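Researcher: I'd like a structural prediction for the single chain below. Treat it as a standalone chain; there are no partners to consider.
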Amino acid sequence: MSASNLIDQCKEKLVQAKTEILNRVRESRQDLYNNDDSKGGDEGDQTVRALQESEFLSMHERLRRQLMEIEMALGRIENGTYGICEETEEPIETDRLLAIPWTRLSIEGAELRESMGKRYAR
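Model: Treating it as a single chain, here is the predicted structure.
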């Protein structure tokens, strides 16, 4: 597979993932507000609402982080640094890019970063 074909494929996957995330956020926000009977309800109803809001916020934060990773990957495509490991500065494996198009690390780079994290976590 040529480098430009790989980048085109990954860019398409990134744009598709971005659209899916934005749709999920919009739908979950609508669900949360459509089911919002803030006034009234017994203690159980209020607890369920609080749990739903908490779940929505944690999901929203995960999606926001993933969206940031996607935006940064699209930026790397634009500036010509896409597919280069941040840790080793070597090309990221094609299969890895196709599976996780927003990745910033090769397998070796991810292992290096993980071992460094463990070393400094002590």
